[in-house]
Design brief:
Elements: E1 6-14, E2 19-24, E3 33-40, E4 47-54, E5 62-69, E6 74-82, E7 85-91, E8 96-103, E9 112-120, E10 125-132, E11 141-149, E12 154-161
Antiparallel strand pairs: 1-12, 2-11, 3-8, 3-12, 4-7, 4-11, 5-6, 5-10, 8-9, 9-10
Length: 162
């Protein structure tokens, strides 16, 4: 059926110990897009940003825009020339779901665009768009949290076939 997208699970990790770095490596370039999914909490510290890096590149090639709210207040932010791309949030108080869509990750002719959404069990929501100013094929996706993700957190990487 044309236009139907199929998600293929590439890898899943369930944390058995707290971790501040979660990385998927050696991603095959056989899909159109990637979905990086995080469901869990952080070990301590309230609410924090959820930054990602592509191919382990820690350089000022990232930019992002975010919008978030909690039912009574809203905020937005924009940043460019960043070392990482903030595409979500985590919390030690609530279970958070981050779903990060990395589009055209295997296309060597375009910069990589990221769309993501975050939500937690206390009605906080956020939407994010990011850009990695590189035409490199993405082979590694990682998050490096300021405080560790807690035991039991689940992270998944899916490939999307169009």
């Amino acid at each position: 059926m044309p236009g139907v997208q199929t998600y293929t699970l590439i890898e899943e990790k369930t944390l058995t110990s707290a971790a501040n770095a979660i990385t998927f490596q050696n991603i095959p370039a056989i899909y159109e897009d990637l979905i990086f999914e995080f469901v869990g909490t952080q070990a301590s510290g309230g609410t924090s940003n959820f930054p990602i890096m592509l191919n382990g590149e820690y350089a000022t090639n990232y930019s992002f825009t975010s919008m978030s709210g909690n039912g009574s207040a809203a905020s937005s932010t924009r940043a460019s020339s960043q070392y990482t791309m903030n595409v979500g949030f985590t919390s030690s108080n609530n279970i958070v779901s981050n779903q990060i869509h990395i589009m055209s990750y295997s296309n060597p002719n375009v910069f990589k665009t990221v769309l993501s959404q975050s939500s937690d069990s206390a009605a906080h929501v956020g939407a994010f768009v990011g850009l990695w100013r590189s035409t490199d094929v993405v082979t590694t996706v990682g998050t490096f949290l300021g405080t560790s993700a807690a035991v039991g957190t689940i992270v998944r990487l899916y490939g999307i076939v169009a």
